Amino acid sequence: MRKLMGRSLLLMALVAPALPGIAQTLPAAVARDVPGLAPFGEGTMRFLGLKVYDVRLWTTMKTFTRMDPFALELVYDLSLSGRDIAERSIKEMRGQGHHDEAKLKRWGEEMAKIFPDIRQGDTLVGVSVPGKEARFYTREKFIAAVADPEFARAFFDIWLSEKASEPAVRDRLLGALASRPGRAK
């Protein structure tokens, strides 16, 4: 009986997707550029109850650290323009405490050039190369790199900073939900 239950649990774990909408593998270009990335945490971003995207954090280590490369994969449930994504990113960066308007303008213009228009089901992946750059990919290809460590930190802080506008999503990405008092899984 115990053996049968163990097999059943193993089978369920193998066939049950971790998060609907997110593939269990990264785009080939990401896997080639940053080998060894594995899923770490995942969540769903909602706005006014509407699902915007599923997000997954991929790391090379069993514990998350910003000293090692990592990736954030977003699978969109809505259609959005690349410019809208860039503008929202700048708004989130301001919320993190970035107030150098000249720098924010430059970053916003760069993101607007990089980010494609998104349709439901499209994937964008951002890769942090610590101390160097942020790299961006679609499911099909590498898009561009922003060789500015300050931009990279500010961009990924949107999801990973203690000041994140969606702390529940941050907690799910970092696996912290169960470890905080008063929080349920």
Keyword list:
about 180 residues; alpha+beta; Chalcone isomerase; 6-stranded antiparallel beta sheet; about 35% helix; globular; disordered N terminus; disordered C terminus
Q: Bin the strand percentage.
A: 15-25%
**Average pLDDT rating:** 85
- The count of β-strands is 6
Oligomer: single chain
Rg calculated over all Cα atoms = 17 Å
Bulk shape: globular
Number of helices: 6
Distance between the termini: 29 Å
Query: What is the succession of H and E elements?
Result: HHEEEHHEEEHH
Poorly predicted regions are: 1-21, 177-185
Instruction: Identify the strand order in the major beta sheet.
Output: 1-2-3-4-5-6
Q: Please name the CATH topology.
A: Chalcone isomerase
**CATH architecture, please?**
3-Layer(bba) Sandwich
Classification by helices and strands: alpha+beta
Q: Given this structure, which CATH class is correct?
A: Alpha Beta
Percent in helix: 25-40%
User: Can you tell me the number of structural domains?
Assistant: 1
**Sheet with the most strands, sense and barrel status:** 6 strands, antiparallel
